[in-house]
Amino acid sequence: MRDRVVLITGPARGIGAAVARALVERGARVALVGLEADRLLALTRELGDAAACFHADVTDQAALDVAVRDAVAHFGRLDVVITNAGIANMGTISIADIESMARVIDVNVIGTMRTIKAALPHIIASRGYVLIVSSAAAFSPMPGMSAYAASKAAVEQLANVLRLEMLPHGVDVGSAHMSWVDTDMVRDVQHDLSSFRRTLARLPGPFGVVTPLDECTRTFVRACETRARKVFVPGSLGVASALRQLLNGAFVQRLITPQMTPMMRESEAEMQAMGRSFGENSVGMGERDRER
Fold first, then answer.
1. Beta strand segments in 120-198, E
2. From the candidates 54, 75, 148, 196, which is the catalytic residue?
3. Mean pLDDT, rounded, for 214-225
C-alpha cells in the first residue's frame, strides 16, 4: 500500500478510523470523507501529512463530487475507495419509524452508489480497487434489521455487478461481510436493548461473536493489498455465505422461530419505550430523534 491513495467514507470512528490508521502505518495516504468534522480533523492531525479530511454527506452528490475532486487535487491520484459509511436503525418494520428506515437505505445503498460514481473515473485511471462494505446481514436475516439487511444485500449485489462492469478497465471490486464488530454501532445496540444481549449469547457460530476491531481492520487492509473479491469477518462467515440458501430456508426458520419470537416482542417493547430509532453515537440520528 506504500504511496497508494485510499479514499474512505465514514472514517470518523469505528472501522473507518481504524482502517485509516492501519493503512497509513503501511505507507498509504488517506482521504477521509464524512461527517463529524471535529473527529475527522482530530484524526487527520493524528495521521499527519499522510491524511486529509473532506466534509461531505454521502447522500449529497454535489458535496461528494467536490470532496473527491479536492482529494485528487491534494494527493494527485486515487487508487482505492472504501465505501464504509453506514448506519443502522433499530426496530421491527411494524413499529419502526419509516423515515428512519428510508434514511438507512439512503445512506447505505444510495450513498454507496454516489460515492462510487464520484470516485470511479479516478479509480479507472489508476486501474485501482473498490471495497464495498456489506455485512453478514446480506445473507443472514434477523428480526429488527429489515432496512439494514436489505441495504447490505443491495450493496453486495452492487459489488457483484460493478465487478463485471469494471473488468475491461482493470479495476477490481470486493465486498466485505462482517458479523458483529466491536464498534460504537454494536455497543449502542448492546447498551440499548437487553433483548439483543441475550439473543447474541444464543446465536450459533460466527453470528454470536463480537469480533475485535483490530481483527476486522487487518482483514480490510489485507483486502486492499490483495484486491480481494470477498472478505469475511470472522473468516468462518464464508461458510455461512456459501450456505445462504439453507439459512434462508423453511427448516431453519422453523428451528429459530421459538427463540426469535419472544426476543422480537421484547425488543419491540424496549424500542417503543426508548422512543428513538438510532443509537446514541449514530450520525444517522435525525432531528426528530434528537428532540425526544
1. 129-133, 172-178, 180-181
2. 148
3. 97
